[in-house]
Specification:
19% of the residues are buried. With 77 residues, the chain is an alpha+beta fold. It has a four-stranded mixed sheet, covered by helices on one side. The protein contains two helices and four strands, in the order βαβαββ. It has one domain (2-73).
Length: 77
């Protein structure tokens, strides 16, 4: 089981990478993705996936240069 992951990838790979790791996430697992503000358009699909109802995720953008996205996996209902 994974408890954390760090995404510093080409933004089009962020969502496929999350989906690949997701079955291995333990509840409370944290994912960090950098430059979420600077690369907002590139992370659009990831944000939509995380924000959909029942996704099992909560997120917050931390105030670092370019943005730092903190995602917590709460598990699916």
């Amino acid at each position: 089981m994974l408890t954390s992951a760090s995404f510093s990838v080409w933004t089009p790979l962020a969502l496929p990478t999350l989906k690949l790791a997701e079955p291995r996430f333990k509840k409370g697992a944290m994912v960090v993705a950098d430059n979420n503000v600077a690369a907002k358009n590139g992370y659009a699909e990831l944000m939509q996936y995380i924000d959909r109802p029942g996704s099992g995720y909560k997120r917050s953008s931390l105030p670092f240069s370019g943005g730092l996205l903190l995602i917590v996996y709460l598990g699916k209902d």
